[in-house]
């Protein structure tokens, strides 16, 4: 067993960190099939640490210790970063140094025994059924883009798929006869997602007018959702489309595709759906991730109880 005193001997320079970062990201991309979004987040967090490390002296090798990391994360917190973000960056660096140790770059992981900051889980923001239905009625279906937008909204709410899954949806993965989609989720995991009648009908209507958008492109794309020039819609464009409609019916600021995904899960549980079934529909790898939606439903039940049950209110007892 390595003595703790040897921890003071771990010296690393910024160029060394940069080289290991590139290898780490390649490993995540090609060996573990991480999504582009996750890779960008890891790259951002690692580059931020490199910049911090470079300020100590470009080209020099500095000691990496638990105290050095405590100082770094403390600096982030003092700059206003919340505990959830600090914990995410800490987890990123811990995973990074675990990789470097496995490849023989350093002798130990300086973050292995450093506890993550405690952070309360935020309940996912969801929309009421009335708000969702109001948003679904907004797209102008007399235009090809309006029919497309309607299908986007219906799929998000009717299937609960992620933004990345909708953006990467291909024609060959749509089965209207069976009313289902084949999507590629996090970590490259494939799953079959059923569509309700409303979502299937909206998607079918869009596919009949999709050719009007496809013919605008010079090449042929198998992506389901296309823009005015016939190119696949980017995630950012899809976010803007969803925001356009949700912002007209809701003032909470929850105008993102994930709000419809959260609403999908919450409304299923409100109607008595099995938690394990919702887990599979959402593509969660862990049940604990899905269980956060039970808190949302429980809070709603408590509110209904407090408003409706006569014994939920304070009883005024009069002296006999």
Describe the structure.
- This protein is mostly helical.
- It has two domains: 9-102, DNA polymerase, domain 1 (Orthogonal Bundle), CATH 1.10.150; 129-307, Orthogonal Bundle (hpI Integrase, Chain A), CATH 1.10.443.10.
- 55% of the residues lie in helices and 6% in strands.
- The chain is built from twelve helices and five strands.
- It has a three-stranded antiparallel β-sheet, with no helix packed on it.
- The N and C termini lie far apart (75 Å).
Q: Assign the CATH superfamily of the largest domain.
A: Intergrase catalytic core
Low-confidence stretches: 1-9, 315-320
As for the number of domains, it is 2
| Count of individual beta strands | 5
The level of helicity is 40-55%
Describe this structure in a few short sentences.
This protein has 320 residues and is mainly alpha-helical. The protein has helices at 14-30, 36-54, 66-78, 83-102, 129-136, 144-159, 163-167, 197-214, 235-249, 257-270, 275-282, 287-308; strands at 11-13, 61-63, 174-175, 180-184, 190-194.
């Amino acid at each position: 067993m390595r003595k703790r005193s040897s921890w003071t001997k771990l010296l690393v320079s910024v160029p060394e960190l940069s080289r290991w970062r590139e290898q780490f990201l390649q490993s995540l991309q090609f060996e573990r099939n991480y999504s582009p979004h996750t890779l960008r987040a890891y790259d951002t967090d690692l580059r931020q640490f490199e910049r911090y490390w470079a300020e100590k002296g470009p080209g020099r090798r500095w000691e990496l210790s638990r105290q050095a990391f405590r100082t770094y994360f403390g600096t982030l917190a003092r700059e206003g970063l919340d505990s959830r973000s600090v914990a995410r960056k800490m987890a990123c660096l811990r995973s990074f140094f675990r990789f470097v140790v496995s490849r023989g770059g350093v002798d130990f992981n300086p973050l292995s025994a450093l506890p993550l900051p405690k952070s309360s889980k935020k309940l996912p923001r969801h929309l009421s059924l009335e708000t969702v239905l109001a948003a679904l009625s907004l797209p102008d279906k007399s235009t090809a883009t309006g029919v497309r937008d309607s299908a986007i909204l219906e799929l998000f709410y009717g299937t609960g798929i992620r933004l990345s899954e909708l953006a990467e949806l291909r024609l060959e993965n749509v089965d209207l006869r069976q009313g289902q989609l084949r999507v590629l989720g996090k970590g490259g995991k494939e799953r079959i997602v059923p569509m309700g009648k409303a979502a299937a009908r909206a998607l079918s209507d869009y596919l009949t007018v999709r050719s009007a958008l496809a013919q605008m492109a010079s090449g042929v794309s198998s992506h389901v959702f296309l823009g005015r020039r016939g190119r696949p819609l980017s995630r950012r464009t899809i976010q803007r489309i969803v925001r356009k409609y949700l912002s007209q019916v809701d003032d909470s600021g929850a105008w993102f595709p994930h709000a419809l995904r959260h609403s999908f899960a919450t409304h299923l549980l409100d109607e008595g759906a099995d938690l394990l079934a919702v887990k599979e529909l959402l593509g969660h790898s862990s049940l604990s991730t899905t269980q956060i939606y039970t808190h949302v439903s429980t809070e709603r039940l408590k509110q209904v109880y407090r408003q409706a049950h006569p014994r939920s209110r304070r009883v005024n007892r009069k002296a006999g």
